[in-house]
Amino acid sequence: MQHRTIDDVMTRDVISVRPDTPAKEIVKLFSRNDITAVPVVDEQNRPIGMVSEADLLHKEASLPDPEGRGPARPAHRGTEDRSRSEAETAGELMTTPVVTARPEWNVVETARLMENQKVKRLPVVNEVGRLVGIASRCDLLQIFLRNDTAIREEIQYEVLGRILSITSDTVQAAVRDGVVTLRGRIGRKSLIPIVVQLCRSVDGVVSVHNELEYSFDDTTSKPPHRVIR
User: Fold this and answer.
1) Domain that holds residue 211
2) Residue 148 pLDDT > 60, yes or no?
3) What's the first-to-final CA gap in the chain, in angstroms?
4) Same structural domain, 121 and 208
5) Please, what sign has the CA dihedral across residues 8, 14, 19, 23?
6) Looking at the 3D structure of the chain, how many domains does it have?
7) Looking at the domain assignment, is residue 225 inside a domain?
8) Rounded distance, CA 42 to CA 18, Å?
9) Across the chain, what does the average pLDDT equal?
10) Which of 40, 68, 152, 202 gives the lowest tally of CB atoms within 10 Å of its CB?
11) CATH assignment at residue 14
12) Same domain, 134 and 171
């Protein structure tokens, strides 16, 4: 089974900024390129932070209301709030440490990292830590655009045929909008969860409906009673 990697789905033409890039220039980059975040890189093109719309909005919210409306800011703001309100450059605005991904990672493990770290995008770095791309949530969802025919063929011939040695006249896979329905009969009941799990791991599969039957329930059979004389 061949799973798509981050190298297959990431954006390669990455817009990045340096720590001394002015905050106003970052806003212009967002507007001109229809993006919502940029990695901040050092002299060797290694990511050292991220500046997002949220960082810029946090700076805006830290400023005093020029017309005196809205809730008052606390009299004694924290050091971070004061720093954000006075931030002028990417280096002062950026969120650190930066969480990165590698090109060879598969989509599932990258999605789990995004979920665990509560981030919407990941700079992708090579073996020496240099920026080679960026992967967003939208990029990761590309695997669900895979067409039904390709999914069915991989399940029928790769998963069922090559890996499990189950012929197409024994089990058939139907795919519609990424939803797989398995029908047919296999020998042992204990094999069904394995079949379902392997099919679910195929790129582009949304879910698997199991309608498989079995000839022998080997999940409840007990070993023969042994008499010791």
Assistant:
1) 146-216
2) yes
3) 52
4) no
5) negative
6) 2
7) no
8) 6
9) 88
10) 68
11) 3.10.580.10
12) no
Q: Which two tokens stand for residue 4?
A: 């798509």
Q: Is the pTM of this model over 0.85?
A: no
Tokens found for residue 160: 């069922």
- How many CB atoms sit inside 10 A of residue 74's CB? 8
Whether residue 58 is contained in a domain is answered as: yes
Euclidean distance between CA atoms 178 and 14, whole angstroms: 31
pLDDT in tens, 77-94: 555 555 666 788 999 999
Distance of alpha carbon 148 from alpha carbon 107, whole angstroms: 19
Confidence of residue 100 (pLDDT cuts 50, 70, 90): very high
What would the two tokens of residue 96 be? Answer: 């650190």
Contacts of 37 (CB under 8 A, 6+ apart): 50, 51, 52, 53, 120, 121
Spell out where the chain has E strands. 37-41, 47-52, 121-125, 131-136, 171-176, 179-188, 207-216
Q: Yes or no: say if 34 and 9 are a contact pair by the CB < 8 Å rule.
A: no
- Indicate whether 174 belongs to any domain: yes
pLDDT value for 78: 52
| CA–CA distances in Å: residue 18 to residues 14, 38, 159 | 13, 10, 47
